[in-house]
Amino acid sequence: SAEELVTNLDSVPEDIRGAVRNHGGGHANHTLFWSILSPNGGGAPTGNLKAAIESEFGTFDEFKEKFNAAAAARFGSGWAWLVVNDGKLEIVSTANQDSPLSDGKTPVLGLDVWEHAYYLKFQNRRPEYIDTFW
């Protein structure tokens, strides 16, 4: 699968590694992104995810502020992520179509901050787009 290839980029032949990182990463990133969106979504998580977020970040609102800051600070194109790394939640940002899978991290939540994701509705107002994610 694309996810397996992106997770194990060192096993991919060097002459196609860049293409696999870009296109495989884009596929893996968008597959997760589209699967988590919902027209009736939003609101705070529940259960184990809620407990983990509160343990790591304080409140859900504090988590959102940090996540939004990571998304807004991404220079150029890329993604903001909530990932599991060594059993702990963390917020990271990746450039272009790079996937946290390539760094051994498991994405839980991702936000596409490529300009094409928001330009038609928000033009260059990325922070407004980010706010609508929630």
Automatic annotation (TrEMBL):
InterPro entries, A to Z: Mn/Fe_SOD, Mn/Fe_SOD_BS, Mn/Fe_SOD_C, Mn/Fe_SOD_N_sf, SOD_C_sf
Gene Ontology MF term list: metal ion binding; superoxide dismutase activity
Keyword line: Metal-binding, Oxidoreductase
Residues covered by the Manganese/iron superoxide dismutase C-terminal domain: 45-134
Cofactor(s) listed in the protein's UniProt record: Mn(2+)
EC number: 1.15.1.1
Family (UniProt): Belongs to the iron/manganese superoxide dismutase family.
Name the UniProt record assigns to this protein: superoxide dismutase
Organism from which the protein derives: Listeria monocytogenes
Gene transcribed to yield this protein: sod
